[in-house]
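hi support,

uploading two proteins for the ticket. first:
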Amino acid sequence: MISVCVDELLAKRNLTIKKLAQIAGLRYQTVFDFVKGNTQGVDWTTLDAVCKALSVQPGDILRWRESDDSKGL
């Protein structure tokens, strides 16, 4: 399962989702949904803008962990 861990980076930098949206030049709702994992996919433009705004690599904000339902495969 892929999860987004932008919340951790925002907390470390004392940033809000609103401020990240402003820095990244994205709509607040787009960034909110991305940060909270409320999306079915990743828009590359959004990922690029967030990475640029936070000066990080995609691997710094996306995490993979094995989900319970994939262990039997």
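and the second one:
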Amino acid sequence: MSPKIRSFFMCCATVVVALGVGRYSTAQTDVVYVESNRAHNNSILVFKNDGGNLVLSNEVPTGGQGVFDLSLKLGPFDSDQDVVTNAEGTVLYAVNSGSDSIAGFKISRSGSLSPLDGSPFPSGGTNPVSLGISRDTLVVVNKAMDPSRPDLDQPSYSTFSLEPDGRIEAGPLFTSPAPGGSSPSQADISSGKRLVFDAQFLGGHLRSFLLEHDGTLSPEDFQATPGKALPLGLWSHPKKPILYVGFVTVNKLAVYTFDSTGHLQFVRAVPNSGKAICWVRTNAAGTRLYTANTTDNSISVYDTTDPLHPAEIQHLLLKGLGNALQFTLGPREDYLYVVTQRAADTIPLGEGNTLHVLKVHAATGKVSGDAFVKLDVPAGTRPQGVAAVQIR
């Protein structure tokens, strides 16, 4: 190639980069999904992140009912993974806690939702609150604590086979009961996809199961927490056999190790600067950990470079009214999305239900730039669950 021709192509390449053409021009936008949890006509609120500003683009019915409760008591709303997506970001599932079903949606390349054939699907129990996906198996936690149905008393765990297109096969593969009133809260799946962890919140126990290839959940551990601290949020380390647990009543983050069968060993509990630590997440590398702290409406950030010795490096109060609950990192881990509820009587009725977006700083993992939108739900409704995908 002559020098002149080479120079011509280099100039063209420079213009392409400068104009943002080709692979550099692809706008990377997150689509964020929040469940309204309406008692009637439950729905998924669909937001787009416009450079740190959240814009509501659609509301899609789930075909079921949420749960309505003005008592503000612990129980029906203490759960995580109410809304989840598959690893590819092509299918979304959400609980219909008031009508005992799971809604399933196909996620388009633009982030829009369309119901899967047969949705909603029976949850295999009553008052489903949490979902976990392990390859082609869906794990469902049925809490059985719907305030509009006070006679419910049998929580359970169910598993279902997933079709290649995301549809849930009829009938559970397996169902296992939990103690009445124990308030199971989460279906945390280990990074190896073979273990399922749950916090029985009001029971004060951690549970672990080995997920067999046929969908059977084999109980492996049933362990009371130290000092009767009530456990809530769980998250397993993405690379190591470590489980992090929020001890909500003592404001501490607990660290457990586990073996290949799911047997847990308590290591330590470290302080949390917030009040009522709840849900927990790590980044994909396992070097940073985030917690939502409900009572003081805050987010804490931990350095977990040494994963057995988490060190809190930030405590940020969220703006506005509300109580921080479920949250998720965006697909590129550059944003953190937090759902707040009206979960205290100090917040006026009709206020406190919001979705926040925080910028995550690549170098430190700390968060800043809190912006939020009010969620348009009826007074007394408490939205729950959040998931995010990147527009493809």
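thanks. also noticed: The two ends are 37 Å apart (CA to CA).
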